[in-house]
Each structure stands twice: as structure tokens, then as C-alpha cells.
Amino acid sequence: MKTSKKRDNTSKKPILGFVNKKFLFSLIILVLFFTGLNIYSGYSRKAYGIKEKNKQEQQCQKCEKVSNVKKIDPQTPIYFTLSDPAKKTEGRGGMHSHGGNEYKNERSKIPSKNAWLVFGENNLVSNLDIKTFIFDTTQTQKDVKIDNKDSVTKYSFEVPKNGYYNLIAKNETVQNDTLFYKVAKLEYLNGKHGSKDIYNEEVKKELKTDRVKIDLVRLKDQNEKSFFYRTGMGDMLKFKAMLNRQPLKNADITVDLNSGWNKNIKTDTNGTASFTLVRDYFPAWDKFDKRYKQDMLITLRYSEEKNGTIGDQKYKKVNYILTYPLSYYPNSSDYQSYGYGLLVGLFIFALSGIIVYLYRRSRTKPFKEIKYEE
Asked: Which residue ranges make up each domain of the chain?
């Protein structure tokens, strides 16, 4: 008797099914692993990458500020600016102006202004023995707060009242038997709305000080009757040069506008010199901006043969260099004329319309009914 053998497949598990489950399990583990890794990487980049980037940007900004500090020659004039040289600005930036205090709506703090000493095209002044002082609206000498950070020196002064503030810096350097006596002067007109200060002739009095040997005083115009006065194009500016508090004659004055215009003049026997600001702002009428501000730099130079010593250094000649920055705006008559021109144009347009209407009306014949009798 023969018996047949049959395979019993129920005792063995399918190999392919086992492999599929193992593969799927491993794949899920890998997906979870890489997903977690990406999430962690994103968190790390967000938490640390931005900080590192900001740190690098700060270092770059610091490098830019330091790179802006250049060496200065003793003969090079220095001057004040109210705009931070570390920031990119056009021109010399915000010189003689009014308003715009640093602290706003803070009753606990006295309003103040910041200034920087620069030379050339907004190059920061450093490594110079600078003496600074400020005269307030009553011509009383006050302290100047000096803040030196990242090789950038900032000069701050308080402006609690409306009026003229005179910020002055002085440097004396001896080189090749010559004393280079440099002075940077900034006259700041502070104007704040809501103040009870009254503008009168006493406010406009000339500053007379013995803290510097040489000085340049701007003589106030008769039309200057407000704390919000602005120098305009076409205005005549008049200055008085002083040496040891006496009028300085035959001194050289150079006027440089950031638009490129310049002028050389000399002081007369009374130490005075005057010039008229050119009108060099001619935009289209629809683009005229009465707040368009430009800057100028006035430089006073004078030399004299004089022996003396500073410390252990002797000199036989003195070169005086004084700078006076000033801002100016379009003349009020300029934008008034634009307004008058617009009014005249509108009047002509309206008049032309009326004339055309009357003419067409006169040419129109009224309807006339004609009756025929048959």
C-alpha cells in the first residue's frame, strides 16, 4: 500500500511578508530620525544662527566705524556735524538747524543734541587733543558730555531752552616750527513749540569769549525774528572775524557748498565779510520741496609770525583755522512764486473756458418756428 505525502505549508511563515514588515519598520524609523534631525537643525539655526549673524553684522558695523576713522593732517580743518558719520548720509549732514531734540515726550530727561567732529567727507576725528565747551542761550559756559565708544567720539549738550547754542572745539598742534591752531564752531538754533521763551534782540547778541583766540561770529539779519528761522537761498550772510577779541582784517574765508559751488572772500578793515547764497535748486514744480536742506562749510584762515612755546615745543609761526558749518533751504519767495504761478495758470485756464463757452453760445442760433399758410 502506497501512501502519498503532502507538504504542510501551514507550519512555515511567509518569508516575503516578514521581509516587508521589517523593511517598513526600518523605513518608519529612518523617516522619524531624519524628521527629528531636520526639526532640531531648524531650531538650532533659529536659536543660534541668527544670533551669530547679528554678531557678525555688529562686528562689520564696528569695523566700518573704525575704518571711517582716518589720520588727519595738522593743516586739515575739523568741523562739527549733527549727523552720525557712521550712518550713510548725503552731504555733510544736518549742520546749523533748529528743533529735533534727541529726547521727545520724556519729562524726566532734559532735551539734548549730539554732535561729531569730522574732517574731509565725514571722516571721524580721533587721536587729537581736543578741548570742547558749549555756551548756552545766556552765553554761559556749560559742560559737554563726551562719549567714546568703538573709536567713535560723540559730543552731547543739553538744550533746555529755545535760543542759540555755540559748541566749540579747539586743538593746538606744533609741527615744523608752526603752531596749527584749529577751532571747530557750531551755532545751533533750538526751536521747540509750546515754549514760553520770547525771541528779542537780546537773544541775537554776539558771542564774545576768550576761550579761543580766533572766532567767527555770524551777524544776525533783521528778518531773523523767530526761533524757527531758516537761512534761505538768495539770502545775504554776514560774518565778523575776531582775533584776540579784536576785528581781524585781511583774513581768508572760503565758502564751500555740498552742491559744488564755492567762493573765496577776504575780511575788510572791520573784520566783516559777506556773500549771497546762490539759488541752485530748480526742480519741476510738482517736485518742489520747501524742506530741501543743503549744507555749507565756511572756513576762516589766517597766519601770523609769532614766537611761542607749548609745553616743550617751540614755534615761530601760527596758522589759524576755524570752521563754521551751516544749513540752508529754498527761499520762501521761491516756493511762493511756484504757488502764484499755479494760481495764475488756474485763472488763465478758467478764463479760457469761459471765453470758449461764450463764443460757442454766441454761434448757436436759437430754434425759430416758421408757419406757412396755404
From this structure: 65-229+236-276+294-328
Q: Lowest-pLDDT range, 137-141, 190-194, 282-286, 289-293? A: 282-286
- For residues 131 and 123, the answer to whether their CB atoms sit within 8 Å is no
| Residue position matching grid coordinates 558695523 | 61
**d(C-alpha 256, C-alpha 299), whole Å:** 8
Lowest mean pLDDT of 44-48, 146-150, 198-202, 264-268, name the range.
44-48
Amino acid at 202: E
- How far apart CA 56 and CA 54 sit, in angstroms, is 5
Of residues 126 and 200, which shows the higher confidence score?
Answer: 200
pLDDT at 152: 86
To 5 degrees, how large is the angle CA 70–CA 71–CA 75?
125
* pLDDT per position as a tens digit, 322-348: 999 999 888 766 655 556 666 666 777
